[in-house]
């Protein structure tokens, strides 16, 4: 049986470590506050925002919620972000995506002060990651690195294949694995012979957004498999991009869905908030 990589346990461990650090920071007079902005009331976004607020409360970070009407204009949103940029008591600004279609997401992301960009989506944060400088890193890929390290999985020198090249997951994931000295291949929808490419991987990271697409035909015997996908199947049960039951018997370690990558994203958001407060003290 493979090692089941327990994202729930690792995420709880990180949040507990942060809680202790936040208590110490508060004793030194450092305040921590995350501003969370949601435009409209998309039910999935409301769940994510609720979970972020809960995690803040657990770790000891104040959260300020801005629940704006769907009809909020781009100008109004930009104005709010600029006000939050100026406020010394706000360490992090998070705008829940997706935004309504009439608002330019890129412009909104670029308006957030990079020193408060706890989602790591600002071009300055992405550029810093690219050239190996300090900066905020997108939370899901940063969480996967923690998951690998804290599960005792060696990264340096390993063949890593990342399937997916989105700005939020695939690209930053590839850069982080490179930073950890893996030999990295990025695959995508135009990759020829995906099965052969994927089978080269010692560590296979899947972020394709297609339920159960990755079967054992894509996986080298003994590989580590990280499943970023989250989907609800016909029975309303969660599943990933990897066909877990098919792949688990051939790999050495695997993340389940739920309970694998998912819980890590919020833990790393909390980590970025704490780092932001520590840096801008
Ligand atoms: P995305 O923006 O849709 O990107 C999907 C990527 O997969 C694209 O680069 C696409 O290639 C590639 N792809 C699609 N079909 C493919 C195929 N048949 N063969 C090879 N590559 C293919 O998705 P995303 O935002 O990166 O998210 C990926 C998954 O992770 C989703 O299920 C999402 O829900 C989940 N997710 C989970 C978390 C979490 O916290 N657990 C966070 C973020 C996302 P092209 O570029 O060529 O189109």
Written account of the structure:
With 281 residues, the chain is α/β, with parallel strands linked by helices. The protein has 2 domains: 30-113, Rossmann fold; 139-262, Rossmann fold, CATH 3.40.50. Helix content is 41%, strand content 16%. The protein is built from 10 helices and 11 strands. The protein has helices spanning 7-27, 43-59, 74-86, 105-111, 123-130, 139-150, 170-179, 194-199, 244-247, 262-279; strands at 3-4, 33-39, 62-68, 92-95, 159-163, 183-187, 203-206, 224-227, 231-232, 238-239, 253-254. A 6-stranded parallel β-sheet has the order 1-11-8-7-5-6. It has a 3-stranded parallel β-sheet with strand order 3-2-4, with helices on both faces. A two-stranded antiparallel sheet has the order 9-10. The longest helix is centred in the N-terminal third of the chain and has 21 residues, at 7-27. The mean pLDDT is 97. Residues 140, 163-166, 168-170, 187-191, 194, 207-210, 228-230, 241, 261-262, 265 line the site of NADP nicotinamide-adenine-dinucleotide phosphate.
Which key features would you list for this structure?
alpha/beta; Rossmann fold; six-stranded parallel beta sheet; three-stranded parallel beta sheet; 281 residues; binds NADP nicotinamide-adenine-dinucleotide phosphate; single chain; 2 domains
Low-confidence parts, pLDDT < 50 over ≥5 residues?
none
Structural class: alpha/beta
CATH class of the largest domain: Alpha Beta
Strand order of the largest sheet: 1-11-8-7-5-6
**Portion in helices:** 40-55%
Roughly how many Å apart are the termini?
Answer: 47 Å
User: Which architecture of the largest domain per CATH?
Assistant: 3-Layer(aba) Sandwich
- Per the CATH scheme, the topology name of the largest domain is Rossmann fold
């Amino acid at each position: 049986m493979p090692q089941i990589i327990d994202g729930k346990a690792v995420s709880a461990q990180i949040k507990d470590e942060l809680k202790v650090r936040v208590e110490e920071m508060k004793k030194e007079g450092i305040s921590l506050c995350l501003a969370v902005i949601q435009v409209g009331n998309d039910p999935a976004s409301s769940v994510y925002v609720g979970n972020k607020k809960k995690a803040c409360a657990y770790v000891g970070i104040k959260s300020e919620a801005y629940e704006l009407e769907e009809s909020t204009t781009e100008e109004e949103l930009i104005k709010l972000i600029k006000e939050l940029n100026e406020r010394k008591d706000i360490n992090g600004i998070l705008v829940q995506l997706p935004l309504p279609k009439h608002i330019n997401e890129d412009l909104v992301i670029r308006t957030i002060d990079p020193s408060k960009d706890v989602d790591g989506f600002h071009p300055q944060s992405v550029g810093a990651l690219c050239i190996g400088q300090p900066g905020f890193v997108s939370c899901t890929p940063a969480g996967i690195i923690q998951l690998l390290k804290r599960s005792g999985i060696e990264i340096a020198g390993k063949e890593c294949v990342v399937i997916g090249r989105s700005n939020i997951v695939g690209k930053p994931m590839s850069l982080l694995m490179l930073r950890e000295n893996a030999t990295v291949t990025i695959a995508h929808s135009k990759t020829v012979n995906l099965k052969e490419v994927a089978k080269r991987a010692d560590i296979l990271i899947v972020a394709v957004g297609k339920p159960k697409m990755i079967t054992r035909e894509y996986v080298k015997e003994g590989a580590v498999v990280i499943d970023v996908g989250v989907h609800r199947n016909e029975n309303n049960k969660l599943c990933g991009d990897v066909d877990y039951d098919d792949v688990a018997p051939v790999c050495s370690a695997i993340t389940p869905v739920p309970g694998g990558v998912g819980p890590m994203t919020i833990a790393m958001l909390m980590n970025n908030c704490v780092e932001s407060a520590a840096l801008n003290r």
